[in-house]
Amino acid sequence: MSVPSGPATTGPADPRPEPPPPPTGTGYRAVFSVPEFRAVFAAHLLSSLGVVLCEIALSVLVYRLTGSPLLSALTFALGLLPYVVGGTLLSAVADRYPARRVLVVCDLLCAACAAAMLVPGTPVAVLLALRCATAAIAPVFAGTRAGTLGDVLGDGDLFVLGRSLIRIVNQGAQLVGFAAGGLLLAVVAPGAVLAVTAVTFLASALLLRVGTHPRPARRTAPGALLGASLTGTRHLLSDRRIRSLLLLTWLPPTFVVIPEALLIPYADSLGAGPAAAGLLLCAMPIGAITAEALAGTYLSPRSRTRLTFPLAIFCVLPSLGFATRPSLGWAVALLALTGTGIAYNFGVDRWFVAAVPDALLGQAMTVMQAGRMTIMGLGMGAAGAAAEYAPLRVVMPAGGVVGVVAVLVVVFEVRRTSGDRLPLPGDTRPRPWAGPPEARQRPDRQMIPPDTEP
After folding, report:
1. pTM, whole model, 2 decimals?
2. Span 213-225, pLDDT tens digits
3. Where does 188-273 have alpha helices with state H?
4. How far is CA 238 from CA 57, 343, 353, 361, 434, in A?
5. Which of 100, 287, 133 lies closest to 206, judged by CA?
6. What is the pLDDT of residues 149-188, one digit of tens each?
């Protein structure tokens, strides 16, 4: 990714903004009372819709050009697989350069990729390469944005609620984006939808440029970008606490997507039509949005944290119900219940931001996002491969069985790294950082004690 050369400085050209006034209200209202967050939220809404519109428009365009279902489906798969490239080789970008600059450049590059797809006669291979480019940029953008939330909202409950709202946007964008994309493609050509995609990325870049404050880079360590990315990732993974929290973030979604990846053949096995398949695909995001909104609105930080482990285990349990080959209505209910488990991320986000030093927060969030998307893609692929040799009523619940065992092992490891008791808001136990000394918190920004709520 093209980024400005050399580390950022903290001179007058890039001043640290004054602390914002205290937020007003409680819960999500307090988060939205922060002006910078409103800009980040609106920009994320636009860019998320742009990504979904790009996926569906490009898939239709590739299919019309080639008539190949495989290449059409590959446009969706390429939205997940390159995450591992951006999340490892480019992860240091999130901390080595000013966050606002990184976010704006990422949006502009995605807009340029979408615009390049509009060029008449573009070969299919180039279209797929452009899709890979936007997917490689995505984890850098997501990690930098997550680090920015730490600057905008702090490290306490506002950060956790801000991350929740970002997840709600992600789930809502799937519902609205695919519906809007389908309607647009019914009346206009795929190229027109790709043009809309480019506009959403440009609008997102503008919002971030004018709506957020300039901040210096978190880390100014010398060395090549590639080396810094790999070194930072290695140091993060070498810390037992951070490694266990990353696994807790990655594994439940990996097993949750197994039934989701098989919904189209499952709907066909029920003799249902495309409308029923669409309903099945919408059930999980609806459950996730509902659970996030209710937990963030009505539960206290302590209650949400206590639910972390139970919900992480629960989210993989509903897939066991597919062993009975449920009817359409019961399948929708099982998928909606699966979606509610996403609320376990409230606690994980709190513990993760407390465990990671500020100088590596952006890179840590990039690695988290890249790992999650990559392993979800592998989970989908494994589910499809297994379904080639075993019936759906075996593959779908088998994923739940393996998932429960895997999540229980990770939960045990997370508990071991946090002492003999569950870390809750109010705990003040110090925890040493196992990473490099230069990655510690800068003295100009004090970090809260691990597992502590301010």
Report:
1. 0.75
2. 888 877 665 667 7
3. 190-211, 225-238, 240-261, 263-269
4. 41, 27, 16, 15, 8
5. 100
6. 888 887 678 888 888 888 888 888 877 776 777 777 777 8
